[in-house]
Design brief:
The strands form 3 sheets. The protein has an 8-stranded mixed β-sheet. Strands 4-3-10-9 form a 4-stranded mixed β-sheet. Strands 11-14 form a two-stranded antiparallel sheet. The termini are far apart. It has 2 domains: 3-180, Rossmann fold (3-Layer(aba) Sandwich); 184-317, Orthogonal Bundle (N-(1-d-carboxylethyl)-l-norvaline Dehydrogenase, domain 2). It has 322 residues and is of the alpha/beta class. It contains 12 helices and 14 strands. β3 and β4 form a beta hairpin. α7 (194-200) crosses α9 (256-263), α8 runs parallel beside α10 and α10 packs antiparallel against α11.
Length: 322
């Protein structure tokens, strides 16, 4: 099984580098300066256990790959880029190969299933930052990440088990999960705080907002009859397996949303996180004023170039009546 990683950023870069270092055949699909840097000098992975360097094939488009029937294709692009990525795979002739959505949110699998019959979900617990072209940092230790992997909408097959085995050989912990979407909904609840953390920074008030956003999300999922699994800090699988540790000389930038805003990427994935809760709330008659407010804020921060951590936390709490 060859692994194709579409999106070699923080998550995709960590996966590609670790798999390549473990001797797995990997092809990355990247763009711009990241593509140029990997082609010229490979990818440097900074981690609590040291600095590593990986060499692997990297291309600019799926059309440059001669796909094999047993390729495992892993999507690691953000949700707002999924449609374009899937269209590229269609154009490249991908048909029945397993497609794994290693992405935040729960919409990516549904989009992929409209086009491909063999779709799988991956819950990603991987604390990583994109540093600069050719360099990523992962702050997880002693393992880099925990993954839950299963078919969409449910079940486990040989492709899931094979990918789990492959990842487990590359300093990850991967679990086959017949209810992977319950895991992904649990991660969705965690990710509701991405935009509030990006807006307010690491201040005490941000914890109040995070708890309120997640409580609102839980009310919505309950009304919608959707089960979720706690994959946060209380997940017993994390003990002795995954905790966030420092890397000498490096500071964490923050969540994927904070990273997008800090880089001026031009978009964030809030509409597929808080926006999912807002949509479900409208469908099931549950008000979602907090998640609505932060969806609007995310659009304004992107549009106006508002820097992460620059909003006044006390003013936000007052406006939200928290």
């Amino acid at each position: 099984m060859r692994v194709i990683i579409l999106g070699v950023g923080a998550v995709g870069g960590t996966m590609a580098a670790a798999l390549a270092m473990a001797g797995k055949e990997v092809i990355g699909i990247a763009r711009g300066a990241q593509l140029d840097a990997i082609r010229a000098n490979g990818l440097t992975l900074h981690a609590p256990d040291g600095v590593h360097h990986a060499e692997f094939e990297c291309v600019g488009s799926p059309s440059e790959i001669d796909f094999r029937p047993d390729d495992a294709i892993i999507l690691t692009v953000k949700g707002q880029h999924t449609e374009a990525a899937l269209a590229q795979l269609v154009e490249a002739g991908v048909t029945t190969q397993p497609i794994f959505c290693a992405q935040n949110g729960v919409e990516n699998e549904r989009r992929a299933l409209r086009l491909f019959p063999n779709v799988h979900g991956i819950t990603v617990l991987l604390p990583a930052d994109y540093m600069k072209p050719g360099e990523v940092a992962v702050f997880g230790a002693p393992k880099y990440a925990i993954f839950d992997i299963g078919r969409f909408p449910g079940g486990v097959d040989e492709a899931d088990e094979n990918l789990c085995e492959t990842l487990n050989r590359a300093n990850f912990v991967a679990f086959p999960s017949s209810e992977v979407m319950a895991s992904k909904y649990g991660k969705l609840l965690m990710n509701l705080a991405n935009i509030s953390g990006a807006a307010l920074g690491e201040v005490e008030e941000a914890k109040v907002v995070r708890q309120a956003l997640q409580a609102e999300g839980e009310r919505v999922l309950t009304a919608a009859g959707i089960n979720w699994m706690d994959v946060g800090a209380n997940d017993p699988r994390r003990k002795g397996t995954l905790k966030i540790e420092d890397i000498p000389g490096m500071d964490r930038i923050g969540s994927s949303t904070t990273q997008s805003l800090a880089r001026g990427a031009g978009s964030v994935e809030t509409d597929f996180l808080n926006g999912e809760i807002a949509m479900l709330g409208r469908m099931h008659g549950v008000p979602t004023p907090l998640n609505d407010w932060f969806c609007q804020l995310a659009s304004r921060m992107v549009r106006d170039g508002i820097a992460p951590g620059s909003l006044d936390a006390s003013a936000v709490l007052t406006e939200l009546d928290l």
